[in-house]
């Protein structure tokens, strides 16, 4: 760890340990080679995305995908879909991106601390850290890998610009890499601020030139930040759920998010695919949220104690806080407090802190005495990280293993059971799905979609009374749910209560006029009640909008409206909305 890089150092000797890191990383992530797509956004972004299948390059650059404008990421999906290879090819490509990023992390740390051993150790920690599994194993998180790769490469070219003769071409290279990063993932917009961080790490004076040269970067960042907020608003991912918390509680939640990634960098425990916003108990957050600010003493203590590396450590933490800032719910987006994939690039800032800590400690006079003990501790942590990473990679083998891992990790959390229930429902395994939804509702009885999905499964098994209960509960929780009224209406219809079905179907149509199948069932209900005129009118409206069953009923029963003796109960068989 004390080997200093000089111009005379043979490159092949420097990179031999890096090759070992890459080999160990491949072994650790090997379970992904035969992994499948998962029913966790992979269907939205890849498997069922017609633009990806058709190699529709224009759409990638002209529109967002599920609220995310990431044309380069989508282009990579589409190119792989054309080349074939199935999900294994996608996973291997993700792993290759991770390996390239590991190499760039090594180069960046080596450039900052000028020490091959420390750079190698930091690259090893980055490569095998369990919290990074989500970014590598989840095909839908490729945007994280691509943007991080571009960002770190951009930081390296920017350092070349700052440290050498400030040749303009290196600034152009940096700009192009930054453009690649924001076109892979919009969270890369913090890059211009990171350029200032590296100015200060390298003791570059703040001047008019150093500000002006970053203006093009800032303009691109502002544009992509605006575009991200606009797209998120269009799909409704900017929500009001966080607004239910008081301003004080929201402040504690933001601090908790900052602290989470620092603590999990050191002790990656209780990892999971989802970490939802906390429940309030009489207006109070869990105690851990109020204790989170105490963890901020860690960087303060380090800054006080490490005088020789204080400047570098300060700006390493600045790197982390800046790059993670857009994910800590200053603007309420989604309903999760933290996401592990968000740590992938910001952890480079913590590695910068760690590298200078190692450098300072290695220069201590008594370091040689504790060096064997330090190496044993590091070996233990790295082995633990590798084991945990391999275990979590195995969890991403397919949808079943992923959702079962959620249940195993958090047996008292609703989400794993809900995900497994949805998976069973998709496979038409309705009794099994109902069992999972029962458990999910037991742990969180306030999620409307759970009642809707369980009700649909009960309809499929003929439990009409149970379905009626679930859809009524759904309406109580979400009074403007067109699904609730629609599904309760057709449930009443199949329970031979068409008179009660009609008001629910009318309400569903009032909330969502495009719900054309509600017109079909309303027509069926009117027909059973003997009101052929209204039945034919509803069928006519549904038939015009392409509902074949409505066209069939028009042909059968509306040519001669005097024939009202026949019933069409049981004719519709498509119950799912």
Q: Which features would summarize this protein structure in a list?
A:
577 residues, disordered N terminus, mainly alpha, single chain
Q: What does it look like?
A:
- Helices cover 67% and strands 1% of the residues.
- It is an all-alpha fold.
- It has a two-stranded antiparallel ribbon with strand order 1-2.
- It is elongated and about 95 Å long.
Walk me through the topology:
Layout: H1 11-28, H2 42-47, H3 50-53, H4 57-62, H5 71-83, H6 86-113, H7 116-128, H8 133-137, H9 142-163, H10 168-182, H11 191-201, H12 208-212, H13 215-235, H14 247-266, E1 275-276, H15 287-291, H16 297-305, H17 310-324, E2 336-338, H18 347-362, H19 367-395, H20 399-409, H21 414-426, H22 430-443, H23 448-460, H24 464-477, H25 482-494, H26 498-511, H27 516-528, H28 532-544, H29 548-557
Antiparallel strand pairs: 1-2
Helix pairs in contact: 1-6, 1-7, 6-7, 6-9, 6-18, 7-18, 9-10, 9-11, 10-13, 11-17, 16-17, 17-18, 20-21, 21-22, 21-23, 22-23, 23-24, 23-25, 24-25, 25-26, 25-27, 26-27, 27-28, 28-29
């Amino acid at each position: 760890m004390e080997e200093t890089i000089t111009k005379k150092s043979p490159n092949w000797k420097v990179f031999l340990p890096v090759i070992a890191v890459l080999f160990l990383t491949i072994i650790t992530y090997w379970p992904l080679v035969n992994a499948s797509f998962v029913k966790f956004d992979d269907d939205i972004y890849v498997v069922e995305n017609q633009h990806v299948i058709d190699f529709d390059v224009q759409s990638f650059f002209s529109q967002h995908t599920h609220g995310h404008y990431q044309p380069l990421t989508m282009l990579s999906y589409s190119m792989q879909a054309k080349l074939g290879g199935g999900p294994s090819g996608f996973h291997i490509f993700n792993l290759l991106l991770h390996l390239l990023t590991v190499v760039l992390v090594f180069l960046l740390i080596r450039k900052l601390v000028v020490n091959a051993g420390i750079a190698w150790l930091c690259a090893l920690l980055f490569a095998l850290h369990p919290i990074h599994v989500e970014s590598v194993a989840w095909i839908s998180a490729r945007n994280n890998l691509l943007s991080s790769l571009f960002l770190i490469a951009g930081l390296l070219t920017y350092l070349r610009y700052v440290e050498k003769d400030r040749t303009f071409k290196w600034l152009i290279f940096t700009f192009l890499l930054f453009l690649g990063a924001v076109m892979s993932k919009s969270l890369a917009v913090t890059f211009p601020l990171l350029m200032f961080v590296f100015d200060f790490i390298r003791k570059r004076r703040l001047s008019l030139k150093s500000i002006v040269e970053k203006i093009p970067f800032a303009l691109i960042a502002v544009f992509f930040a605006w575009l991200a907020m606009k797209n998120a608003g269009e799909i409704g991912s900017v929500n009001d759920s966080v607004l239910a918390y008081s301003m004080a509680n929201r402040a504690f939640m933001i601090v908790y998010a900052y602290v989470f990634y620092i603590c999990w960098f050191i002790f990656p425990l209780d990892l999971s695919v989802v970490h939802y916003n906390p429940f309030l108990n009489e207006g109070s957050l869990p105690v851990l949220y109020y204790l989170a600010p105490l963890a901020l003493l860690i960087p303060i203590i380090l800054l006080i104690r490490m005088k020789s590396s204080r400047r570098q450590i300060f700006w390493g933490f600045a790197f982390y806080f800046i790059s993670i800032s857009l994910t800590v719910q200053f603007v309420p987006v989604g309903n999760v407090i933290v996401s592990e994939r968000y740590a992938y690039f910001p952890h480079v800032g913590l590695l910068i802190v760690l590298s200078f800590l190692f450098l300072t400690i290695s220069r201590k006079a008594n370091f040689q005495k504790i060096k064997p003990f330090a190496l044993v501790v590091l070996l233990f942590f790295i082995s633990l990280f590798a084991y945990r990473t391999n275990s979590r990679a195995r969890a991403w083998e397919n949808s079943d293993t992923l959702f079962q891992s959620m249940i195993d990790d958090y047996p008292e959390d609703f989400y794993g059971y809900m995900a497994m229930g949805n998976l069973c429902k998709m496979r038409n395994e309705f009794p099994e799905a109902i069992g999972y939804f029962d458990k999910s509702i037991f742990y969180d009885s306030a999620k409307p979609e759970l009642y809707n999905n369980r009700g649909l499964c009960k309809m499929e098994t003929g439990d009409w009374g149970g379905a009626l209960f679930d859809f009524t509960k759904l309406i109580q929780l979400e009074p403007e749910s067109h699904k609730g009224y629609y599904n309760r209406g057709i449930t009443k219809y199949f329970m031979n209560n068409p008179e009660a079905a009609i008001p629910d179907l009318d309400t569903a149509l009032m909330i969502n006029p495009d719900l054309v199948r509600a017109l079909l069932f309303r027509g069926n209900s009117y027909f059973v009640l003997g009101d052929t005129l209204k039945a034919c009118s509803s069928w006519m409206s549904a038939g015009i909008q392409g509902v074949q069953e409505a066209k069939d009923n028009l042909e059968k029963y509306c040519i001669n409206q005097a024939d009202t003796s026949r019933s069409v109960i049981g004719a519709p068989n498509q119950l799912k909305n």
